[in-house]
Structure formats: C-alpha cells, structure tokens
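Fold Annotation — chain and its backbone

Fields — amino acid sequence, structure tokens

___
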Amino acid sequence: MHKKHFQSKLALLLCLLMMASSLAACGDSESTETTADPAAVETETVVETEAPKAADTLTVTDFGGRDYRMVSTNQDNRQVDIIAEELNGATLNDLVYNRNTAVSDLYNVVISAEEMDYSAINNVAKQDAQAGDMSYELYLTNYTANSLASGGFLYDFYTLPHVDLEQEWWDQNEKEDLTIYGKLYMAIGDISPTELLTSECMLFNKVLFDNNGMEYPYEAALNGEWTIDMMLELADGLTTDLNGDGAIKVEDDLFSVTCWGDYAQTLFYGMGGDMSYVADDGSVVLDIDVEQCANIYAKAYALLKGTQGNYEYSGNGTEVMTAHERSFKTFAEGRAYFCGITFQKIETFLREMEDDYGVLPNPKYDVHQQNYSTCVSGAGSMVIVPKSCTDPEFVGSLLEGTAALSYDMITPDLIDVLASTKNVRDMESSEIVQLIIRNRNFDTARMHDASPDTFTEQLLIKDSTDVASFFATQEKTYLTKVEKLNEAYGKLEG
C-alpha cells in the first residue's frame, strides 16, 4: 500500500505570539541602605528574535502601477479570499484587506478583484487559453478545473517564474498528489484562506461533555492518540430519546454525532485510507486495498450507525439543502456531542450557537497511523493560469507574493477567524487547527472525478456493509477513468 508522507507542522508563529519578555524597572530610592555595585552584578541580555518571514524570500519588482486583476469563485462565499474593499471589523475581511494592501505596496500594483461562479471562471480561463488572451492574473476556481488541466488549457506551475513550490505556503500534499507526469496545473495553499478553511474537522460540545463528566480529548489529540476506537468508546450510549416517545428523531433528540453525508469520506481519509497515488514514472495508479477499505468502513459504520448518530444525506426523504443544514443545526442547538464539519461551515452554521465547543482532528484508525489525515472539500479553491499567459514573469511574481504574504499575514490568525464565531477560543483548538491544515489529503483519483472514496457514502445510505461486492462491480469503472486521465496527461506538451 502506497503511503503518502504527510507533514505534521504546528505553526511556530502561534507559540511566538504567546511569548513576551519582561523588563524590570528600578525606581529611585531615598533609603540609606547600601546598594550593590552595578559593575559587580551579572546581567543577562535578552535578545528578541523574530521568526523568518515568508516575505523575506521574495524577489520583488516594482511594476510601476500595473493592474493586478483577480477573480474568485463565489461558491460558499469564497470571494472573501480576495475582495476586501475596506477595513470593516470582520476578522477575515480585515486580514485580506491588509494582505492586499501589502501586495499592492510591495510590488507597486493596482489591485482589482471580482467574483464569479466557478464554472464561469473555468469558461473564461478556457476562452483565454484558446484566444491567446489573459483576462486576470489570479484565477481562483475549484477542483472542477481538472478538465481544463487534462484538456491542455492550463500553464504548468513548475515552469512559472518566481513560483517556489517547495515553500510551505504552497500545499505540499496537494503538489505531490496533483503532479502528474511532472506537471502541475492546479495549485493551492495559503493564498486562499477559505480553501484552508474547507478542511474537514471534528467538533465536540464542551457543555455536554462537562454535564456528562467527560474529559476533553485534547491531550490525546495533541499526542497523536486520537483514534476512532477512542471516539467510539466516548460516543457509545450518548444518543438519547429526550422526549421519551420511543423513537430517535432528528428534530427532538440528543445524538452522539451529527454530520452531512460526505463526512463518511472524511472518516475514510482520516483513518489513513487512500485510493490512488502518483508512481515514480509520474502516472496515476489506482490502489484500492479492499481489506483496508472494509476495516475502515466498519469503524465508520459503527460510529455513524452503531451509535445512532444523525447521518444526513441527499435522497433521505428530505429536501437536500434542508437535510444539509439540519445536520449542523442539530449541533448548533446543543443536541449532539460531536459534529463532523468543515472550518468554513462553522462560520455559516454555528455563528449563533450558545454552547462552547472544541476542535479535534478527524480520528486516526489506530495509534500506529503516523499522522492525522484531513479530507479537503472538493469545493475548495484552486489557482489556475491559462496556457496563454502573456507575461509569466509578472503573473509568477504576483502569485508567489500573494501566497507568501498570506502565509505571513493571514494563516497565523485563522484561529481568530474561527473565534469570531465566539465559541472557539482555547489554545488547544488553535494548535489543532494548524495541525489539521498542514496534514491534508488530495487523493489524485478523487480530485479528478474518479471518486472511488464515495463507496462509504453509497453503502451507508443503503445501510450495507458489503464493501467487497461494491468494489467487485465498480473497480473497473474507476480504473477506466484513471487510465483515461493518464492518457490525457501523457499527450500534453511539456
């Protein structure tokens, strides 16, 4: 089984922000007591040092007031990655405004920012590539641009001047997972704060934990020991028929866990599951370990079904959006101990929640799993550049600068974005946020619509545990998709 090497990096900036030096001040005294000779007193000089800044790595050019045009998908309010017209007191808005101002000042450019539907952005990029034009310097769409990549419409980031993909502000797991035959046509990282916030996590309700005498799982999580078995032990027996009508109903009762349908995939990846990898020759390899899939699925089933969790999905007799919102509303109302959710949906659905809650990574399969693994919502942003890029020097400089300054000026304060919902304020959660966003999984097959990981959701909806039969009938379909992907990339020019 191919193993990806996930990075586990806590943000040093969070620690540095908590360190302060103390200076002792001595006042004049009229006392007749003898004072020591200053020359005889050993003094220790404390030298304060700052953490290296990403901005220090940049090669800066004065572009003489040129226009820097940006466009972002407005899906789930993601335009806030680039659009901040003034300081207004909203945490993310002000962080983005300050970053944009810094980019503008550093490179002497005039920034303009627009929003569009992601499909419209993809169409503009395709049209630009075909016409030899360039409508923007920064195109922020989502993973659906994979068809533009395999179709030969995009610029290879490895050949874009000034973009240093080895730096931390470019997601290293995404780079590894989406580099096919040595080419990378979609890139992401700190340049898109909301993309970082599309990382899936697990929340727990502190009030319910306190009332039930349960210890917060922070220590286990930070020690790398937060596992699905530990979560199952905590969740067992928590679902409660509050009104005593003999039936567990989403509108009335208390649940062990609540989540939307695709959180089943999140649990799969969190427990170390994977469906594909990029081989040494650059090709994508479908790698479905049916036994591992079955073992992981059994744990996910035990959590979501065995503990009578509130597992919402489309087609369960309720309008899709109603069921989607209801999965988070249950937690917001204080009627679930755990909630599977993306960071960004915390802002959307939990802003008015009264109970305090904590943030956890998605549980590992067992303590032998090397790192936590974070599933990234497919709706997360991706940066693309049309193949027709008319000024690679300019575009590369601005993309690298925007990403680096985001790393310096926005990412360290992401916990403040979450805290603006008023309920995530403890230091443990802030450390875990950084742990989550630096251990993300971009399964190559999944990000190109082969999507074998959806077996979890499909089987849960049917209340089935027959993983082997599922792949016996479906694996050939996934394999065909991967073969077509390799064929398309193999034909692309260098």
Summary: Residues 467-490 form the longest helix (24 residues).
